[in-house]
Design a protein that fits this description.
Structural class: mainly alpha
Distance between the termini: 27 Å
Number of strands: 0
Radius of gyration: 22 Å
Order of helices and strands: HHHHHHHHH
Shape: elongated
Low-confidence stretches: none
Largest sheet: none
Strand content: under 5%
């Protein structure tokens, strides 16, 4: 029961961290690349994060080839030709908030710093995906030295193998 309570508390903290990180990201983007915010409905999707990782500024997005952007959206399962066309039009017609690299560059760096370093590890696990990878990250935690073996994690979670014994059989 203690392990479950700790898991719930860890999940609550991770959700709170995710909300704080999303707010910090949105705030940074409002100061450097506000045009990107209405282009994507959900700011916690791989599509949005990968777009920012690849094109952290409006200038970078506008310098990308049309075919590269189209391929990017298709790779991220955006199937609607209208949605892709609207985003491409918005990218090309957008005007930079400021051309000053002294303001844009620090905010672009902040955008890159928002991801959790262990997320790709858990996201790569078969069947984890965008839904279960954060749950696994919470279950394992960010301290890698916390569990010295798989048995230690199983014992902590209350799933350690139990040997049944009855008489001379086990």
């Amino acid at each position: 029961m203690r392990a479950l309570a700790q898991l719930v508390e860890s999940r609550r903290r991770l959700v709170g961290d995710t909300v704080r990180r999303t707010h910090r990201l949105t705030s940074a983007l409002k100061n450097s690349f506000p045009q990107v915010l209405p282009w994507f409905d959900d700011k916690e999707t791989p599509l949005f994060c990968d777009f920012l990782r690849r094109w952290p500024t409006l200038k970078a997005a506008q310098l990308a080839r049309r075919s590269t952007l189209e391929a990017f959206f298709r790779e991220h399962h955006v199937r609607s030709a209208d949605v892709i066309a609207q985003r491409l039009q918005a990218i090309q017609s957008a005007t930079a908030l400021t051309p000053d690299a002294g303001l844009v560059t620090p905010h672009a760096l902040l955008v890159h710093a928002q991801g959790h370093p262990d997320f790709p590890l858990f996201n790569a696990l078969p069947g984890a995906g965008a839904v279960f990878a954060p749950h696994l990250l919470v279950a394992f935690g960010a301290q890698r030295d916390r569990y010295t073996s798989a048995d230690a994690l199983q014992k902590y979670a209350g799933m350690a193998p139990v040997t049944e014994r009855s008489g001379k059989k086990s």
